[in-house]
């Protein structure tokens, strides 16, 4: 017999900022009332683009804001606890003062027990606590209250890998229900059993965990596109450009992932041996000439602790380097050594003369709230120089998943995630051949993470990434520098999963004759290998040649767009303007068809 829900929202409508976030008064509002029923033991992922209303929905569930219409029902005796993304520490002097504040404060010994497992000193002054320490304190406070329903808003933000592992383990044993918002795909995939999807004012639910979300999303958008085409509703199709753009981007990323695996195999061939933090040089000077950062025998000690023990590394142009490890393991120190922000105690770090970098760090300052999007990107004008190519600001906004109509919106009205995306758009426009990204995934939604992966893949230079986002690293980096806190730096070809496998595998297994992930002769993970199903001659030929053709078409589109960026072209030669525009549209149509064809063949190949 099915159990009754412990919490329900029925027919919820909410207006915010002059628009209906959920459940407008008429069908023309484009939104629908929210209905939600939470059963005991539910594990729900709450998914949606920045600004869709995810955090607002959790606040409404807590009763902190009231809906304009509809009912909120809570089963008597149900304890609901909200782990906010940015909790207010108010006047709390210590982290324990914060944990014990409020009418429903937990018992001090319960807080201390959880804090001890998380490795946080609750007597630490709240004012000087780091973001990670504050996050741990908020987790200890929330879990110590023994909730029946736990609402989690980006729980892994500011946590290191060991704390994320601990939280995943705790939630896997937790008997209550939880709803979580998170950009951490690995966290969501491991823990959730059903998905709530907030999309354009509508909430859908499917009894499948996050691991099945993307396939569900693709199915929904494909059905909408077919329905729109049958209706010949051109305006409706245009209204969905963002959704279908995301779908096409994911398909293009299939080719990028294949290229990433090839780059990893190349890097694996350069590593001299398992566990040796050193790269072999080629017999000629080709490798040396491509090096942009050369670290030779560098180390760093603070007091009696060796934070970085001597190691050597040559970073080539085009490398994507991930730096991983727990808080305090030395990630920031290593990053500062490689970028020459600090000097090593021993050894040297040499940069190529042409190296110029842009850094986006986790403490990035908020943009001026009173400035408009146009002012942030284009200093109030219509055009922006994107790594040396002139582009219209509204077209550039679309590249970063913004509605171009937001161009004159003030920054203060944007959500936190939208502000982070705007900052990324501004920084990625700068001319540079080195990107340094320190926790770049904080406050970004899943679709923006897809975009960030695409931008990194297409970047012509070198990328250094410090991140605790395991899935993000697996999708972006060619080489991982892993720190275990002892001062040793492990160099592993591949992403986080490759480093984790090497770290956990016994030495005997690593030295066995079976191919390893970091073995250049082993097949790259997830790459299509010999076809599982026999393809026709035409299918096999298309499968082999389409990736190159898609790349040619994207190059042609980019060149055409660069020509159209000339604001005087239309006035000087309208016929050429029209011809180039038509050529771009034709190339886009051929590219999209080629992507669809190759993806279908890839699915056959992979069985």
Task: Explain what the structure shows.
The chain has 607 residues and is an alpha/beta fold. The protein has 4 domains: 7-222, 3-Layer(aba) Sandwich (Rossmann fold), CATH 3.40.50.300; 261-356 and 433-510, P-loop containing nucleotide triphosphate hydrolases (Rossmann fold, 3-Layer(aba) Sandwich), CATH 3.40.50; 367-422, no CATH class; 528-607, Helix Hairpins. The protein is built from 21 helices and 21 strands. The strands form 5 sheets. The chain has a 6-stranded mixed β-sheet, with helices on both faces. Strands 15-18-19-13-20-21 form a 6-stranded mixed β-sheet, with helices on both faces. α3 (108-118) packs across α4 (131-144), α9 crosses α15 and α9 (241-270) crosses α21 (574-605). It is globular, with a radius of gyration of 26 Å.
Give the helices and strands, then pairings.
Blueprint: E1 7-16, E2 19-22, E3 34-38, E4 43-48, H1 54-62, E5 69-74, E6 80-83, H2 95-99, H3 108-118, H4 131-144, E7 149-153, H5 161-173, E8 177-181, H6 185-191, E9 194-199, E10 202-206, H7 213-231, H8 234-239, H9 241-270, H10 286-290, E11 291-302, E12 305-316, E13 320-324, H11 331-338, E14 346-351, E15 357-360, H12 373-378, E16 383-386, E17 389-392, H13 393-399, H14 416-428, E18 434-438, H15 446-458, E19 462-466, H16 470-476, E20 479-483, E21 489-493, H17 496-504, H18 507-510, H19 537-564, H20 569-572, H21 574-605
Parallel strand pairs: 4-8, 4-9, 6-7, 7-8, 13-19, 13-20, 15-18, 18-19
Antiparallel strand pairs: 1-2, 1-3, 1-5, 9-10, 11-12, 11-14, 16-17, 20-21
Helix pairs in contact: 3-4, 9-15, 9-21, 19-21
């Amino acid at each position: 017999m099915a159990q009754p829900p412990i919490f329900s929202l029925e027919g919820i409508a909410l207006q915010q900022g002059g628009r209906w976030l959920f459940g407008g008064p008429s069908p023309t509002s484009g939104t629908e009332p929210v209905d939600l029923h939470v059963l005991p033991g539910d594990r729900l992922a709450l998914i949606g683009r920045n600004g869709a209303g995810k955090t607002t929905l959790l606040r409404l569930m807590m009763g902190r804001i009231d809906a304009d219409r509809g009912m909120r029902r809570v089963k008597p005796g149900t304890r609901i606890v909200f782990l906010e993304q940015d909790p207010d520490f108010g006047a709390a002097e210590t982290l324990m003062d914060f944990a014990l504040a409020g009418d429903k404060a937990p018992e001090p010994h319960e807080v201390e027990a959880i804090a001890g497992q998380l490795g946080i000193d609750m007597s630490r002054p709240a004012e000087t606590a780091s973001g990670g320490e504050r996050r741990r304190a908020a987790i200890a406070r929330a879990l110590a209250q023994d909730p029946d329903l736990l609402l989690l808003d980006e729980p892994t933000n500011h946590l290191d890998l060991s704390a994320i592992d601990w939280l995943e383990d705790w939630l896997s044993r937790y008997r209550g229900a939880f709803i979580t918002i998170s950009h951490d795909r690995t966290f969501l995939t491991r823990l959730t059993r059903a998905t709530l999807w907030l999309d354009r004012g509508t909430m859908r639910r499917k009894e499948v965990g996050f691991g099945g979300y993307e396939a569900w999303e693709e199915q929904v958008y494909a059905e909408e596109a077919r329905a729109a085409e049958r209706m010949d509703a051109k305006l409706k199709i245009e209204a969905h450009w963002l959704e279908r753009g995301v779908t096409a981007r994911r398909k293009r990323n299939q080719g990028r992932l294949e290229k990433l695996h090839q780059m990893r195999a190349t890097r694996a061939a350069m590593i001299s041996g398992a566990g040796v933090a050193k790269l072999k040089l080629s017999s000629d000077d080709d490798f040396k000439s491509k090096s942009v950062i050369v670290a030779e025998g560098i180390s760093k000690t603070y007091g009696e602790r060796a934070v970085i023990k001597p190691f050597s590394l040559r970073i080539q142009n085009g490398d994507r380097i991930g730096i991983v490890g727990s808080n305090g393991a030395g990630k920031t120190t290593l990053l500062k050594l490689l970028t020459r922000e600090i000097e090593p105690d021993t050894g040297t770090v040499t940069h190529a003369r042409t190296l110029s970098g842009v850094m986006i760090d986790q403490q990035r300052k908020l943009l001026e709230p009173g400035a408009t999007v146009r002012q942030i990107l284009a200093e109030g004008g219509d055009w922006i120089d994107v790594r040396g190519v002139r582009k219209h600001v509204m077209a550039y906004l679309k590249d970063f998943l913004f509605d171009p109509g937001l161009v004159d919106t003030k920054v203060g009205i944007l959500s936190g995630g939208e502000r982070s995306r705007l900052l990324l758009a501004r920084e990625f426009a700068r001319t540079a051949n080195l990107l340094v990204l320190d926790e770049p995934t904080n406050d970004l939604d899943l679709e923006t993470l897809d975009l960030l992966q695409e931008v990194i893949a297409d970047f012509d230079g070198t990328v250094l990434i410090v991140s605790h986002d395991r899935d993000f690293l697996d999708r972006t980096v060619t080489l991982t520098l892993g720190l275990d806190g002892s001062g040793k730096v492990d160099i592993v070809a591949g992403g986080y999963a490759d480093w984790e496998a090497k770290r956990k595998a016994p030495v005997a297994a690593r030295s066995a004759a079976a191919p390893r992930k970091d073995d250049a002769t082993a097949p790259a993970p997830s790459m299509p290998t010999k076809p599982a199903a026999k393809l026709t001659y035409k299918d096999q030929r298309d499968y082999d040649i389409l990736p190159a053709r898609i790349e040619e078409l994207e190059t042609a589109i980019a060149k055409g767009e660069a020509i159209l960026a000339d604001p005087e072209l239309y006035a000087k030669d309208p016929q050429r303007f029209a011809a180039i525009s038509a050529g771009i549209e034709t190339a886009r149509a051929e590219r999209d068809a080629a992507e669809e064809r190759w993806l279908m063949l890839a699915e056959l190949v992979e069985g």
